[in-house]
Design brief:
By secondary structure, this protein is an all-alpha fold. It contains one helix and no strands. It is rod-shaped, with a radius of gyration of 26 Å. It starts with 7 loop residues before the first helix and ends with a helix.
Length: 61
């Protein structure tokens, strides 16, 4: 099978395809990092609230 050279149109669409994939990957990673951080922050906030309540109950109970 002979490899025929890509036309300019095919080349451009191939480049764009790779670029779009990378962009999507970066966006996805950023999104995941962002949501991960917000989940962790909420978790920390929740945990500190629980600890505060626990300390409050122990102090007054």
């Amino acid at each position: 099978m002979q490899c025929k050279p890509l036309s300019e149109q095919q080349l451009i669409s191939k480049e764009l395809g790779v670029f779009a994939r990378e962009l999507l990957c970066v966006r996805c990673k950023t999104f995941l990092r962002f949501t991960g951080q917000s989940i962790m922050r909420q978790g920390i906030k929740y945990a500190s609230q629980r600890l505060d309540t626990f300390a409050f109950v122990r102090k007054n109970g």
